[in-house]
Write a structure and sequence with these properties.
single chain, Rossmann fold, DNA polymerase, domain 1, 7-stranded mixed sheet, 14 helices, 7 strands, about 40% helix, globular
């Protein structure tokens, strides 16, 4: 059984790894060996796994160039047991990980990225509207908003942002093109907020631009596509008895995870799936019947954990 070290439990406030004890408990059900941390971030989960099991090694992925600096302390401490690969997990098929005993995905934007003003993930501070998890590739959110087709905007705002007033927001974004108002976070947030009816704003507890910012970020980084590409690759590389664990933070992330897990475990994919049970191939067993969520103590210490859902399966 893995144990949480004191060093891990006293990490920098705001950068605590979510559902750490639960992740360690699930990974302890797998044979010792190499574990994939597909979303290195601040390295909290990686450090805990390495400290908890002398037989574990980690290959970690992160497309954020700032992660390289955060990895240096782990490289110095754990040497050959730890390797960070500069890559998006959506390109996992291009990374040589070897056979895996476990794999962990902690989805969504990291607290490090949210806290860096110049990255443009948040409208709490004025900054260029960038939102790229890897600023070396792709286009910024500002450029994407200036050139995206109406279909792409609808997909981002309605589907990824789940914004009820998506028609008004999409129209406002298109009207703001060429004015410079889409270039920075605060002016972009204002464009969106002006399009959301005031009556709804008064009833909502969140800023009117929150949902659309989420949708734009997901579109710019191809976050859902990356999940759909990476999970099958990670599962295929698991040894027999290996554990795949995924932490998601909203329904858009959780949906493809849930569907993939049900498919691997030979479970119905939905209420209308009438495939006979003996015709469902079963490649894994679920390790939790319902998603694991944070307890009261973690919720009090780490507000980011309030929307986290952890699912895990073990390969047969």
């Amino acid at each position: 059984m893995f144990a949480i070290s004191a060093e891990v439990s006293t990490m920098t406030p705001g950068h605590e790894p979510v559902l750490l004890a639960e992740v360690l408990e699930l990974l302890a059900k797998a044979p010792a060996g190499r574990v994939l941390d597909a979303t290195f971030g601040g390295g909290g989960h990686t450090r805990a796994i390495l400290e908890a099991s002398a037989g574990a090694s980690i290959v970690a992925l992160d497309r954020d160039p700032a992660a390289q600096d955060r990895a240096m302390a782990l490289e110095d401490q754990f040497g050959g047991r730890f390797r960070l690969v500069d890559s998006d997990f959506g390109r996992l098929d291009q990374v040589d990980t070897g056979a895996l005993s476990g794999a962990l995905f902690d989805l969504g934007v990291s607290s490090f990225q949210l806290d860096e003003r110049d990255r443009g993930f948040s409208f709490r501070h004025d900054a260029p509207a960038d939102m790229r998890m890897d600023p070396r590739t792709g286009v910024s959110a500002a450029d994407w908003l200036e050139t995206a087709t109406e279909e792409m905007l609808v997909r981002a705002v309605r589907n990824f942002g789940e914004e009820p007033s998506w028609r008004r927001v999409v129209k406002a974004l298109r009207s703001a093109r060429g004015t410079g108002r889409l270039a920075r976070t605060t002016s972009l947030a204002a464009v969106i907020a002006d399009a959301v009816p005031m009556a709804r704003q008064r009833k909502s507890k969140i800023h009117p631009a929150t949902r659309t910012f989420q949708g734009i970020r997901i579109a710019v980084n191809d976050e859902i596509g990356a999940i759909e590409r990476a999970l099958p690759v990670a599962f295929d590389r698991l040894r027999s008895g290996g554990v795949l664990a995924v932490i998601s933070f909203h329904s858009l992330e959780d949906r493809p995870v849930k569907q993939f897990f049900r498919r691997q475990c030979g479970q119905p994919l939905g209420a209308h799936d009438s495939t006979p049970q003996d015709l469902r191939p079963k490649f894994a067993e679920p390790l939790n019947r319902k998603p694991i969520t944070a307890g009261p103590s973690e919720l009090a210490a780490n507000p980011r954990s309030r929307s986290a859902k952890l699912r895990a399966l073990r390969k047969l």
